[in-house]
Amino acid sequence: MGAFSGASLFFNQPLPHIARSYGYGEDNILVLEGDLSGLKERFPETYQNILSCGHNADRRTPLDYARDLVASWLIEDSFLILFRQCGLSAALSGTDRGRKILSKARVSSSSDFSLSWQGQARKLELMNDYTGFWSRKHVLHLRDNKYQKLCEEKSLFLAVSIATREFALYDFRSAPKARYISSHPAYGGKPAYELPIPDQILHPASSANISEAVRLCFSAPQE
Asked: How far is 129 from 6, CA to CA, in rounded Å?
């Protein structure tokens, strides 16, 4: 199950309907509807940008990659709303914060969110598991240089298992130990880092639990 299927499960509504309610552009709606010909005719730049992102697509078709990308934005935006509702100052900070599919050359590994609370500012990266892999295998994988970027930014890393409705929150001020994988099959042979995600750090993924866990990281002493 990819992000498109997982987001459909998460929202339990047609994703084009959710996207319109969030104010997404018509190019993103066409992506979610799988209308590649309409996209090519009406939004040729977006169409070409999708074709340029082969590295990010891994083993997916360009359309499947684009649908997963836009679907993942919808989930990100739902968490943005959650963070704001729990009293955090929150903004999108990735290069795709404008919710436009960019060319490969303009894609970066910057964190998804900028958060602040009680005078402190942190970056937060969100990652979702749609298949229950984390719960079964007790590991998760960060592709390319994402692990190094989280370490450099001392980010929070929120791992949410949509399939099992659990989450774990890592604070990269003390970076978790990770195993380097030089070639990961699921990422088309690109490198990755493997992090442990044992049962004891997985918690029920309610809005209240996630909000409280994030706020506690702001309250924790600086190292």
From this structure: 8
- Residue 186 pLDDT > 50: yes
- Return d(Cα 164, Cα 122) in angstroms, integer: 27
C-alpha distances out from residue 2 to 92, 116, 162, Å: 22, 31, 11
Beta-carbon contacts of residue 4 (< 8 Å; ≥ 6 apart): 15, 32, 64, 67, 68, 71
Q: Is the dihedral of CA 53, 57, 28, 87 positive or negative?
A: negative
Question: Taking the alpha carbons of 178, 104, 5, 167 in that order, is the dihedral positive or negative?
Answer: positive
The model carries a pTM of: 0.85
Amino acid at 40: K
CA atoms within 13 A on the CB side of 120: 17
> In whole angstroms, what is the distance from residue 153 CA to residue 160 CA?
20
* Range from 25-29, 157-161, 180-184 carrying the lowest mean pLDDT: 180-184
